[in-house]
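Write out the bound-state structure for S-adenosylmethionine.
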Amino acid sequence: MHLAGAYSGVTFQPSDPDAENRASIDAWTAHLGLANVEPALHIDATKTFAPVTAVDVVVCINMIHIAPWPAAVGLIRNAAGVLPVGGFLYFYGPYRRNGAHTAPSNAAFDESLRARDPSWGIRDLEAVVELAKNAGFAAPDVVEMPANNLSVIFERA
Ligand SMILES: C[S@@+](CC[C@H](N)C(=O)[O-])C[C@H]1O[C@@H](n2cnc3c(N)ncnc32)[C@H](O)[C@@H]1O
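---
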């Protein structure tokens, strides 16, 4: 919603596999009166991005640590399938780097995620970069964000 408000000339296509979350997205779009946000689609990243076939940027915020690892695998595979050369895949969230958490608060968050679901957890940045490399993305720009989060920005080579 923040990005859609900031970039009114860009059309945003939100998605979520969860019906309640799609309803929440659509409610926020209506509440803010954003004309450049389409109704949320039911997309499970482990499956296919259909009916989406071509976009300029794929944005994934706070998802791959709150889902099983195959969600990251599928997200990157599907993003490579819909992005042109020069298109961007953007991740936001917490990551481990060089085998370690970047802050005690991230370690505690990771523990709480794994307690909720053992298949969840803060991902190793290097593992995500490896997946992306194998799917045809260049090495990412990594930008440190507030509260020990990262922006990880891949360009399709
Ligand atoms: C913490 S929420 C983040 C939602 C939103 N991106 C945000 O930052 O406010 C994590 C979201 O990931 C979604 N999710 C879980 N598994 C997924 C999958 N396989 N494909 C796509 N989304 C998934 C959940 O339904 C949930 O809405």
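---
Residues 16-18, 21, 44-46, 61-63, 66-67, 71 surround S-adenosylmethionine (CB under 6 Å).
The radius of gyration is 16 Å.
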